[in-house]
Amino acid sequence: MRRQASASQRLLSKLHPNSVIALKQALMVTALIAVTWIISMAHLAIVARPLFVLASIILSIIYIRRSPWQYLTFSLWIWTLAPFMRRICDYYSAPVGFNIVLIAPNIISLIMLPSLLTSRTLLKRKETAVGLLLLGPSIYGLCVSFVISDIFPGMVGAIDWITPLIYFWFIIDNAETIDELKPYFDVFIPLNLAIISLYGIYQNYFPPAWDLKYWNFLKGEEEKFTTIPIFSTLNFPGICATWVALLILLSLGFGGGIAFFVLPTALLMLVMTEVRSAVGALVFGLILAMTFGRGRLVQALLGIFAALFVFFGLFASLDQDLATRLTRRFASVGDLEHDGSANARKDLIKNTPNIIANIPFGMGTGSVGKGARAEAGKKFVDMDSGLVAPFIVFGWFFGAFYGFGLAAIVARCAIAAKRSGSQTALVLSIGAIASAATSLFTMNVGIQGLMLWMCIAYAIAIEVQEHNKRIGASSLLRDPPNWRTRERLILSADRKIL
């Protein structure tokens, strides 16, 4: 026992202190899931649901008081695990359409507002302005929903549009300490990727009863499904695949050697989802990394390619039925004329001018996504195009305004990576561009919008920090401190160490 304890202590001593905190946080999340699960098994979902939300809020408050980055990684755990806990609660009781567990991530995002509203630096940063410009269309869309009496659906939909912006401002506001975030992500990204990938593969071969019950409840059809698509711990296959593709790209700059061992499983699971847009986004991101990467990023790419060889080995050992299904699915890219989903998107884009002409002022935030699901009879529940959705929600003027602002902030992210010269910022900008590219196939709201805005804010924050360091260094060169000032700086540093 002593030898095992000393070995674990030596391992922890080699990790960054923030990485150790991230590991402890993962254990806390595991405990939260276990407690909620046990209470649900006692057929007390009426207790388990609010308890999960309340515990998430309390833990979020504790973490945000300690560090903004402890809060950030904890909130990402809740974003990716809350849908799974919703299914667990529903399995041991009657499923409910509006489940409070699902809004836990949105509720804990409100904990960022006090620090943003009282910040003395946020409004002084020019990067804040772009987020404020995109906030305008979201508020306008909410007002449209109020005018046409879609109050509750409008509020539900507006949350999905605005929440990613809150994360953007929060990261920008804490740009001075952004270098403290990487050790947290070095643990979170490979660990989260491993959990989602392994569970997704298991879900494909042995669909758990709670997942089958959820899928049948979601579809609401007479036929009872015995097989389901892969959505792992998230709600839908598309969201799951997009999240996994982004984490694989971010593994180029985060996770170190640990990420390499996770990548084969993650790549296998991603292909098994059969979501071509996510696979395409990953390939696009890897091409960008090969084009603009250097140094350690190139080494990470070699790791990705090595993982690909392992992946193909695993793929070759799969059962023939799955191999045939996947081959048929991805071969359909060369024959899109006979592909149902491709034709549906083509028709949607073709009819967009007529749709906009009929609703020039938009249908409000309650017309698509979660807002539309909150009220039966909505036309645009599942919008398969992030390019068309803003025009339907905000009308032609604010829709174009939103699209221009989104393109501008993605470009600003790429510029930040170039100016900072940071490989981490480059990886984040590649992730942001790949996520933005999926707008052709899905809406960037909710967790998908969070993926995009988080990468953008992180890359820009790195540039802000580097810029501040350069300004500080140049000011010291222009006006070197006298001996009294140097003495005060030394004493201050000693106090921080103590």
Automatic annotation (TrEMBL):
Subcellular location(s) of the protein: Membrane
Taking every annotated instance into account, which residue ranges of this chain make up the domain O-antigen ligase-related? 265-372
Note one Pfam family from the annotation. Answer: Wzy_C
Q: Does the keyword Transcription apply?
A: no
Per the record, membrane topology reads: Multi-pass membrane protein
User: Which top-level group of life is the source organism from?
Assistant: Bacteria
Specify whether Lipid metabolism is a keyword of the entry: no
Q: Major location, coarse class?
A: membrane
Report the GO terms under cellular component.
membrane
Recorded hits in InterPro entries, A to Z, give:
O-antigen_ligase-rel_domated
Q: Per the UniProt record, which residue ranges are transmembrane?
A: 21-40, 46-64, 71-88, 94-117, 129-148, 154-172, 184-202, 241-263, 275-292, 298-318, 387-410, 430-461
Question: Any idea which UniProt keywords this protein has?
Answer: Membrane, Transmembrane, Transmembrane helix
**Protein name, per record:** O-antigen ligase-related domain-containing protein
Q: Tell me the organism.
A: Beijerinckia indica subsp. indica (strain ATCC 9039 / DSM 1715 / NCIMB 8712)
